[in-house]
Amino acid sequence: MSASNHASAFVPPATDADGRKNLVGLSREELEGEMLSIGLEKFRARQLWHWIYHRGSTDFAEMTTLAKPVREKLADAYIVARPTVVKDLKSADGTRKWLLRMPDGQEVESVHIPEEDRGTLCVSSQVGCTLTCRFCHTGTQRLVRNLDSAEIVAQVMLARDMLGEWPAPPDGRMLSNIVMMGMGEPLFNYDNVAKALKIVMDGDGISISKRRITLSTSGVVPMMERCGQELNVNLAVSLHAVTDELRDIIMPINRKYPLRELMDACRNYPGLSNARRITFEYVMLKGINDTPADARALVKLLEGVPAKINLIPFNEWPGAPYERSTAKAIQVFGDIVNNAGYASPVRTPRGEDIMAACGQLKSASLRLTAAERAAIANVIAEKDAALAS
Ligand code: SAH
Ligand code: SF4
262: CA distance to ligand 2 center in Å? Predict the structure, then answer.
């Protein structure tokens, strides 16, 4: 089953100016097919996989387990490409944001959030997003296209380059976890996301296990079960409201897949247990969804779902229509949820000074004029109309 996404199908050329094909993002089977197509043996694919995804090599000349003529043949036909780093920003708290340019000139952002002995990479799945959640900066971006599997895997590879983790140590990696929580709705680009995550999880390569990968969705109900069955990664659901009335407004996807359907899909997510819960994300918007009554309704809504709740203080962006809840309101809300037996950590905003925090990603940073604000309102209206059609 697939869900319509309204995103442009255009994908940039997978070859360089000399017509050489990029090997990043191909499945193992596709890589074997490529080897056969240039007259090499199938097992070369395994050797290449090791160099590309374990060693991080981008230069065939380095691949010394291959004989020189083989390396030359590969270099004639292929490249191992990385996106161009347009900006490398470092926050006072150590968070890094990379603005990456893809071969067609489109740009996406990835964010690395370091902790003491581990680190999480927040990966984008689309350029922009077709949805228009009212609190999210990415939703105001007009241009949208799906990223292909190469562009998704390349974000992880680029981060490893930047962190100097090729080959990655078994313990204490600074890129230990991945969250599909950057720009875009991953379940509207399922095929590419799935292909990319399978490459990322492969134990002979990048080797980040499904337990350390979390995919966040705004609630694309028809794709949730398949995601659980095929990828079995941790699921996060952007909930943010406990009534259809409010969720319809702040997350227009709710008009298509309302709370009842969403909660049913959550209950049926494959592999759930008390040890393996769904994370419900809840952005705290002052005066909108942050009352004690909302907290109690949230507890009720989650009955019967193994859940943890992530309270996210709203992160501001230029032109945002909401404000962050007060610290007191967040604490009272969190206490109610906690007393009902749910873990409910408040997510400390990271990288706000470089616009890298949740919901702040958008390739161009803006200082808005009235005309630009009107233009944004137009974009939202157009995208909402497309969702309704
Ligand atoms: N499209 C997917 C993946 C993006 S995840 C999704 O919506 O789930 C990004 C997370 O940050 C989501 O939970 C999103 O709702 C949240 N978010 C968006 N804008 C935010 C903001 N301004 N402040 C805090 N969190 C925000
Ligand atoms: Fe898209 Fe997620 Fe932002 Fe909503 S919160 S606009 S689904 S990226």
Answer: 16
What would the pLDDT profile of 343-370 be if each residue is shown by its tens digit?
888 988 888 888 887 777 776 544 566 7
Site to substitute for ligand 2 among 218, 223, 247, most atoms within 8 A of C-beta: 218
Atom of ligand 1 nearest to the CA of 182: 4
pLDDT in tens, 24-72: 999 999 999 999 999 999 999 999 999 999 999 999 999 999 999 999 9
Which structural domain, as residue segments, surrounds residue 251? 84-388
Q: Is 359 in the pocket of ligand 1 (CB under 6 A)?
A: yes
Kindly report the three-state secondary structure assignment for every residue of the chain: CCCCCCCECCCCCCECCCCCEECCCCCHHHHHHHHHHCCCCCCHHHHHHHHHHHCCCCCHHHCCCCCHHHHHHHHHHEECCCCEEEEEEECCCCCEEEEEECCCCCEEEEEEEECCCCEEEECCCEECCCCCCCCCCHHHCCCCEECCHHHHHHHHHHHHHHHCCCCCCCCCCCCCEEEECCCCCHHHCHHHHHHHHHHHHCCCCCCCCHHHEEEEECCCHHHHHHHHHHCCCEEEEECCCCCHHHHHHHCHHHHCCCHHHHHHHHHCCCCCECCECEEEEEEEECCCCCCHHHHHHHHHHCCCCCEEEEEEECCCCCCCCCCECCHHHHHHHHHHHHHCCCCCCECCCCCHHHCCCCCCCCCCCCCCCHHHHHHHHHHHHHHHHHHHC
Asked if residue 264 and residue 195 are part of one domain, the reply reads yes
Q: Which of 53, 79, 105 is the last residue of a domain?
A: 79
Q: What is the CATH number of the domain that holds 180?
A: 3.20.20.70
